[in-house]
Amino acid sequence: MKLRIRNYKRLINCIVITVFAFGVFYFSSATNTYSNSLPKKIIVSRGDTLWSIANKNYPNDYLPKKTFEIAEINKLDDGAIYPGQILILP
After folding, report:
1. How many Cβ atoms are within 10 Å of 90's Cβ, its own excluded?
2. Rounded distance, CA 7 to CA 86, Å?
3. What pTM was estimated for this model as a whole?
4. What whole-number distance in Å separates Cα of residue 58 and Cα of residue 16?
5. Is the pLDDT of residue 75 over 60?
6. Nearest 5 degrees, angle CA 50-CA 51-CA 56?
7. Buried b (16+ CB within 10 A) or exposed e, 63-77
8. Predicted confidence (pLDDT) per residue in 12-44, tens digit
9. In CATH, what is the architecture of 40-89?
């Protein structure tokens, strides 16, 4: 009977340690992912266009796609932007 109780306690200890280790790993990786995925925001200056903003921030990317993404994220139906406006970048 004592042998069964010892085995039961070992099993419970293994489960507790496994759950604790999984929790530490999960929450540490979730925190790092969140902090790296915060959106970048910019303030539109006089003379800026969606194309120039895309070109400044994504010089090696396909600009028509980036301008479309910027307009889509910021819900710009006609693509018009104004000085002082805050835009979220993809």
Report:
1. 16
2. 62
3. 0.58
4. 47
5. yes
6. 100
7. eeebbebbbeebeee
8. 777 878 777 777 767 665 555 555 678 899 999
9. Roll (3.10)
